[in-house]
Please model this.
Amino acid sequence: MGNASLNELVYGFELLEIVAPDPDHKADEAELQKSIQKSKEMMAMVEEYKRRRAISNA
Model:
């Protein structure tokens, strides 16, 4: 594949390798729940920021 540039950065496009997931892999449920909660809190902060910005620009 060829190279392309965007804003003076050169990208080389390579084919992706498809990897099958390990069927025996088990996720740590407690860590997963903490990650989900952190993501929800971050999205709430973003929405609050957007709401405040919309009010201040009005």
Q: What stands out?
A: The chain has a mean pLDDT of 87.
